[in-house]
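Protocol step 4 of 6: structure prediction from sequence.
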Amino acid sequence: MFLTHWLLLALFCDTYPHVNGWGRVGHSITVRLAQSQLVDSAPEWIRSLTPWHWNGNLSAMSSWADSILSENNNPTGYANWQWSRILHYVNIPDLSCDYQPERDCINDQCILGAIKNYTKRLVTEHDHIQQEEALYFLIHFLGDIHQPLHTGFRGDRGGNSVVGTFMNETSRTNLHFLWDVGLIEVRLEKDFQQNTSLYYDYIYQLMINQTSQIDDNLEQLNEQNINLICSQIYFDENNVTMNASTNFTLGEIYYQRNIPIVEQRLVDGGRRLGVLLNRLAKTRSQQPSDKKPKLCSGTIALIVILCLEGVLAIVGGVLIWLRFKNKLSTTYSISEFSKT
């Protein structure tokens, strides 16, 4: 039976709506595709910003921006990252099919503004930890924006409130989660024995066999998202518009209609991210550095402590030596006095 192993994840998605674009599989594939295209100085630059234990595998960090929001994954720090939740998507008025930055992304507080911000920070920021954070946010948000429902209607929270059943399952899911995870999971089970490596190889072949050029016009991509949600994604197998007031029943027809879109968006996301990272690496290498690398406060504190310990050790050593010298002098004087 399809989807039984991800139904529990639907509960998580309902608790943390609107943020888990593509799920772990889709995000990982997007970043792996991007890394396969890196050239010149980009691979080493990305390796320097990837935790050493991942051996340069940036895809291991592709869902970091989601995991930091979860109490289960980040129990001691999740509350500190809730400010970033709004950056995973952009909302537009219900059925407006129209994006207006001054209305829908005030002060760049949406996914489009976040991508612009973290792209800039990767070039201008010199602090290593800040670079890492910017990179991990950027690779995730660029994956999110290729999941069409991350440009969503405000009233139903990007499809999270549009619920129903899929592929004859008895447990309910929602439209957003279906696009994040459900369609990909059915594809894995139907045709790839649930082997994500085989699926990656398939998507990779799709990418290298295409010659289409990818630009960095994210507002145009956002408009494409709007066209998809207004003309296709919200229509069920009888071409009736789905909404939060009724439950949908979707199956093979909906799957066959939309899985090609999902896979093309994975290709586009991987290609676009690869192009962007190559460009940023080149820009950084050509940019004269007006700032010398700075030591973090923890390192400075450690150096100060070690210096103080060194000074104390030297002073202590001198005092011991003086005391020992005085003792020798006293002993010598008593010895000479005894002889006389």
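Step 5 (inspection) to follow. Residues 121 and 303 are 29 Å apart (CA to CA).
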